[in-house]
Amino acid sequence: MHQIQGRVYLAPYIWDMECKMIRHTINLKERSYPICITTNFDELGKAVLSLRTGKKVMIVTDENVDGFHSEECISRLEESGFEVYKHVLVPGEEHKTIDAVYGIYKKLIEYKLDRSSSLVALGGGVVGDISGFAAATYMRGINFIQIPTTLLSQADSSVGGKTGVDFDGHKNAVGAFYQPKLVYMNVNTIKTLPKREVSAGLAEVIKHGFIMDEEFCEYLNYNAQKIFAFDENVLQFLAKRNVSIKGSVVEQDEKEDDLRAVLNLGHTIGHAIETARNFELLHGECVAIGMVGAFKLSRYMDILPESVVDQVKAMLVKLELPVSLPGMDVDRVFDQIFYDKKVKDNKLKFILPRKIGEVFQCTIEDTGLLKKVLFDLAK
Predict the structure, then answer these.
(1) What are the residues whose beta carbons fall under 8 Å from the beta carbon of 135, sequence distance 6 or more?
(2) What is the mean pLDDT of residues 84-99?
(3) Is 204 annotated as a binding residue?
(4) Residue 53 counted as an annotated binding residue
(5) Helices 330-337/267-276 angle, 10° precision
(6) Binding residue per annotation — 125?
(7) 141 marked as part of a ligand binding site
(8) pLDDT at 340 over 90
(9) Residue 6 confidence (pLDDT) above 70
(10) What percent of the chain has pLDDT over 70?
(11) Residue 127 annotated as lining a ligand binding site
(12) Is 163 annotated as a binding residue?
């Protein structure tokens, strides 16, 4: 059983003691897929083999991830009989473009991958978004596999089927909903990340708690030190709780017609900041600031007390996330908000909290109130 507000009732997991793997399924009828949460790549070849796809595979990764994980992933796949190719992207949100997708198409054709072949995204959210869009559109759709290597992508972007690229300065303006066939999470890959990127990933993790599960927020607050120490048990628990929360929403609203919009808590302001600052801040950092903005909006609307805003800020600070952006160009961020995909008929739709663990969707028509919040965030 799942519910949008209050506590999330977690779907059952299958725990494989032999390989220390947690298996969870996203139930979308014929588009259902397994998520494997583990601490190594030992079972990768077997997991992909179980999909019964063709034997040609192309891994798409970026220059940052390539040296850490490509060789082992290729080895595991080849051990299971796959013919493996690789394409390496230039890292960074600024390279999340149609040109990057074009480069993938050229390699897919050069290596003669067909409809039975698989495209594997090995990396963070940018790699996953670009690769997923290429997989969705090459030959009208080939098999797509996610191997997320950042906390942000393990917590959020690898689950749910959102793919796409930025276009003409607008984030994710071109894309498609395209579900993977498999998500394989090795939680130890985040050990290779700078601490700042780990913190940025935690923004999406705690976002799920703010939306649906206050106890999960308390768990994160209590275990912050263990997260930064890369405690395997804590990291696997975070991953399974995240895929359960996000999965429960995606299963009910795959293409963001209604319910799935709750996952955008903090994103309306966050995306605007991200774009207005030319992506100099990490996505999770912008989302953290945006979530503070959402709680402040609720405070000014007398939905929740100031003490809750302070509590939220304290949790984010403990996870080493920003809660404001001093000197922010308020007018530029305000203007950018109206390019958001959630704006309809020039009206701003926001996901706002009633309390920690419960949110609702509303239209904000008072632009003065929104500017007041943005000025608060700029202090």
Answers:
(1) 119, 141, 142, 143, 144, 163, 178
(2) 95
(3) yes
(4) no
(5) 120
(6) yes
(7) no
(8) no
(9) no
(10) 92
(11) yes
(12) no
The answer to whether the annotation marks 283 as part of a ligand binding site is yes
Which part of the chain has CATH 1.20.1090.10?
Answer: 265-377
In the prediction, which pLDDT does 345 show?
66
Q: Is 240 annotated as a binding residue?
A: no
Q: Is 363 annotated as belonging to a binding site?
A: no
**What value does the mean pLDDT take over residues 27-52?**
95
Q: Are 145 and 119 in contact (CB under 8 A)?
A: yes
181 among the known binding-site residues? no
Q: Where in the chain is the domain with CATH 3.40.50.1970?
A: 14-194
Q: How many Cα neighbours within 13 Å face the side chain of 26?
A: 30
Q: Which fold has domain 265-377?
A: Dehydroquinate synthase-like, alpha domain (1.20.1090)
129 annotated as a binding-site residue: yes
Question: Has residue 274 got a pLDDT over 90?
Answer: yes
Confidence at 4, pLDDT banded by 50, 70, 90 = very low
317 is in an annotated binding site: no
- pLDDT score for 263: 85
Q: Hey, what amino acid is at 179?
A: Q
Rounded-to-integer distance, Cα 147 and Cα 41, Å? 10
Q: Flag whether pLDDT at 84 surpasses 70.
A: yes
As a CATH number, domain 14-194 is 3.40.50.1970
